Amino acid sequence: MSAREPLWRMIALARPRGTRFALGVLLGAVATGSGVALLGVAAWLIATAAQHPPITALSVAVVATRALGVTRGVARYLERLVTHDAAFRTLADVRVRVYERLARTEPIRRFRSGDLVSRLVSDTDATQDLLIRGLTPPLVAVVTGAATVAVCTALLVPGGLLLAAGLLLAGLAVPLCAAALGKGPGRRQAAARGELSTSLVDALHGAPDLIAYGAMDQAVRRVERADGELTRVARRDAALLGFGAGATTLITGLTVWGTLLLGVAAVEDATLGAVPFAVLVLTALAAFEIVAPLPAVAARLGAVRASGERLFDVLDQPSALAKEPETPGEPLRDETALRVRGLRVRYGPDEPWALDGVDIDVPPGRKVAVLGPSGAGKSTLAAVLLRFRDPDSGTVELGGADITDRPADEVRRIVTGVPQDPHVFASTLRENLRLARPEADGTELWEALRRARLAEDVEAMPHGLDTEVGSHGARLSGGMRQRLALARALLAAPRVLVLDEPTAHLDPDTRDAVVADLLAAAEGYSTLFITHDLTGMDRMDEIYVVADGRVLQHGGHEELLARDGWYREAHTRNGPAAPSASGAR
Predict the structure, then answer these.
(1) Rounded to 5 degrees, what are φ and ψ at 548?
(2) Mean pLDDT lowest for which of 105-114, 201-210, 500-509, 531-540?
(3) Mean pLDDT, residues 39-47 taken together
(4) pLDDT cut 70: percent of the chain above it
(5) 6-315 is classed CATH 1.20.1560.10
(6) Model pLDDT for residues 198-208, shown as the tens digit of each residue
(7) What is the rounded end-to-end Cα distance, in angstroms, of the chain?
(8) Which residue intervals define the domain ABC transporter in the entry (predicted)?
(9) Model-level pTM?
């Protein structure tokens, strides 16, 4: 099995707690061995008692029976305690790794939201399932199975060999068959779970639009199809578990009957006594408790492997950021000038350049616009400035320091912004604002709202700052969501404010008002206004016209209007959106 096999990689995640899992295996072996020994000692006690020996001859066995019963319960409890503790701690580490990976991955966007939730929950939890059910029981079975076969072989060699064959069939052959049969259904189960989660989230979040366009019935049918597929896979999984349980029971019965017949023949030949005969048969019966969990574990391996592949698909996503510097340099200066030189970025070796040699300057306290059509590379520029990805070549400097030489969090304390589609959490206005600065008090929150021109609207709400905004801010208008995002950005007290298409989804009247409010609130900040729209360009100190990842024009509003080219053509058309890149050329 390859080291890149998901199951091995999932087990490797538990390496820091290998000692605990080894202790869990030891305790599991003690618990299972005590169960087998308990039945063996009980058989000896009953068979010996039938011969009416002195009571003193039975005292040791009576005490041993009680001791084994207590030991079995205590060892099983400790084994569950130790292994579950180790598995839960490992699971917590895995979740942290996944969240950290997503926090530094922009790649989160390559996964659909419902599918991503399934990866974060069900597929991550599969690690715990593998460690608890797939790691400890097989190791326990090897240890206790070998010991039990050795004891039975010492009593009667043919009986011990038959028991070994039965245990190998029930503990190895049946699980291997179950694993082979469960490989396909397991993979389909993980995919079906992700599809159900995706279709359900899409239907719930898109309900207003689906209803408006009469597409809700189609969305519901999609959910039903996904649920039906998952149900079919679950039925096959249940059938597979039934096969494993039935096959194990059949092998157990045949092995015990075979041991019984061999034992009877040995007693008749006087090569085995009556008491050892009873011990042999009942020990053989108890021995199958050792391998009973294994077929069910093996049947789940296909689903666990598929979950592991989906989990590592997230963890193996390449980071768009270079390694964080280990030692921070001098703190960035408060009066921070932003300087971009020769910036080139693309999303893959064979992809075209999203930015191709861009030069931009944002002096302290100045308002600079980056204007261009969709696909011009504007959002890529914002991603680089906010350190969601690093340049392929060229430099971005803050106060003379290259941002790739500084920790991303330090850069984001200096440069923050209002994205094109700001996320509003399903909580209160207060909690959404305090994401930027958890220690902010009410006065500071209201000041940020006033600067974003949102204070009057919030004051008119019955619960003020404690107003619930709904899922994704559904109870707020588009303009209010943008202003809330701006207030949150202002509360972080940045030095450079990046406004990335903040009016993209607003109607013209709302757009004009929001632009005026954004620019008024940004007074005193170094502001980079990234947009495809001409609104507010007359208030900019400098304008960079960008298309196909390159700067076409650069200058002030009046200067560009006086010059032939893209900007004057767009302004003459007096449309709300900029013309296409082809027309710009």
Answers:
(1) 50, 35
(2) 105-114
(3) 89
(4) 90
(5) yes
(6) 888 778 777 87
(7) 57
(8) 338-573
(9) 0.68
